[in-house]
Amino acid sequence: MQAVSVESLDQEGRGVAHVDGKVVFIEGALPGETVTYSPYRKKATYEFATLGEVVTASALRTKPRCEFFGHCGGCSLQHFDARAQVAVKQRVLEDNLRHIGKVAAEVMLPAIHGPAWGYRERARLSVRYVVKKGGTLVGFRERRRSYVADMTSCQVLLPRVSALLEPLRHTLAALTIRERLPQIEVAVGEDVIVLVLRNLQPLGAGDEAVLRAFAKAHDVRLYLQPRGPDSICPFAPETETDLYYTLPEFGLKIRFSPTEFTQVNMAVNRVLVRRAIRLLDPQPGERVADMFSGIGNFSLAIARRGARVLGVEGNTALVGRAAANAADNGLAERAAFEVRNLFEIDAEGLAAMGRFDRMLIDPPRDGAIELVKSLAGDAPQRIVYVSCNPATLARDAALLVHTRGYRLSAAGVVNMFPHTSHVESLALFEHDG
User: Does the global pTM surpass 0.70?
Assistant: First the structure.
């Protein structure tokens, strides 16, 4: 096999090399290394390849902590020094801003990061009964395949959750519906672990006793989900679990249901909220918008600083949850929430909400292009944009800077998912008008 020099990492954490005019993306290769490779997909201008031999290793190459790394598709960068991962993600953000948005931040913020291991408090685990494997598999998907990885532990899951993988395999294999249970949603609150079992048919004779015994033995709460997310119901015990997380700096207790969106990394989320509120700098009496507000993660922190906040979210259930959280935290007079599809908003619809002094935007991966297009002359003087996709952030930044008169005052990465190529980021836009 031909040896090549690896130049950089792409946005999926693959090594990038150039061979005979083609770009070669090599899984497991690191910048500065000389490696051999084996292509598994060839196109006219590029190839995808697996790593062969590392002829010259990078000084930043480390031994993966997880014995299933490389087989499990949950992580892609455990072989790369954790600090270097953050630096690469910062460069990915800068490159997207420069090449897609044609903008550059005046200040690059220090990266937000936290524990590199045992950090995941949310996960969606796949389940499959495989006779040839001797029973039920529980874990993430294999890399580049739809099969469930044969794993008995996970180094990025919360340790208490990782410890459940092996007993779950044995418990689920004993169920009569073991072939009709494809997924488990994991949700960890301040003091409790909830597992939501996606059961495609009702529990059979004896199944209830098996699951109740598991829940009691491992001190977890079990829910069942026979249909869509709205169908989940508590099973063991049969009462709703008080599932919540806290933002101690703001004196907040935020409740959520097992299938409602919360960040996977609560340690990093606390730092993210603190940084976002510091950049937004809401003042008492000001009117602030929290767009894509979810269950109130940022809204309630803004209200706690004395501003009046309107949280806007497309999901009715999340709006109801956010309003309940505001009431529970004594913030109902300063925090209001409404349902609106922000992917279809226009200037008239935004203007109907009234003028805002400041705005926080926290969209899903598709970004907030229609919202940004809707900003008019009386737009907020300051916008904090929390992004989970540097490409759509860069696209929206281009519109804000080149057509709406904003400056990209600051930007930086948020390492919400260590050992993966996933890049979250935070940006501050200011209007001088």
Answer: yes
